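ingest -> validate -> predict -> emit
validate: passed (alphabet ok, no gaps, 50 aa)
predict: started
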Amino acid sequence: MAEPDHELPPDVLDQVPSGALALAGLSVGLLLLAWFLMYLFVFLPRGQVG
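emit:
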């Protein structure tokens, strides 16, 4: 019985890591932006604790 060929073309493999890196970078950037906006508009106006 012949083994199936699961080889992907090299051009497909070149695009996948850059897309995953872009998605991860975008996710981290949005997370940091949300945290900064929450800090700026929620925590700073409340003032110091105590």
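The radius of gyration is 22 Å.
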